[in-house]
Write a structure and sequence with these properties.
This protein is mainly beta. It has one domain. Helix content is 6%, strand content 45%. It is built from 1 helix and 13 strands. The strands form 3 sheets. It has a 5-stranded parallel sheet with strand order 1-3-6-9-12, with no helix packed on it. The protein has a 5-stranded parallel sheet with strand order 2-4-7-10-13. It is globular, with a radius of gyration of 13 Å.
Length: 110
Amino acid sequence: MSQNAVIDNRGTGVIDVQTDADFAFGTAQSIINAGLFKKSAGVLTTAINVSFVNTGTLDVQAGSVSLFGGATTNAIIKTAAGTALNLTQGITNTFEGTERSEKQMAQEHR
């Protein structure tokens, strides 16, 4: 990402990360997600080294996602069995929405 770049995923948009590649950092970069941001492939970690603002859905289906640039979310976070969402110590992260594991979602649909 270039300096001051912003990825703005609108309400009906989908960002599907199908690799273990990272989102690089710079000055005042951010990802604003009002749609669906998912990691659907890869077995390692995708590092998001920019501010992540989520009012949509963050869905970790494969590997792991690390939020190294801080995160703000008041929406849905999903993590499938065997995956992880990693937060960095010393970075401010604010969560006000719903976090559900695959096991919790399965129990809800019985």
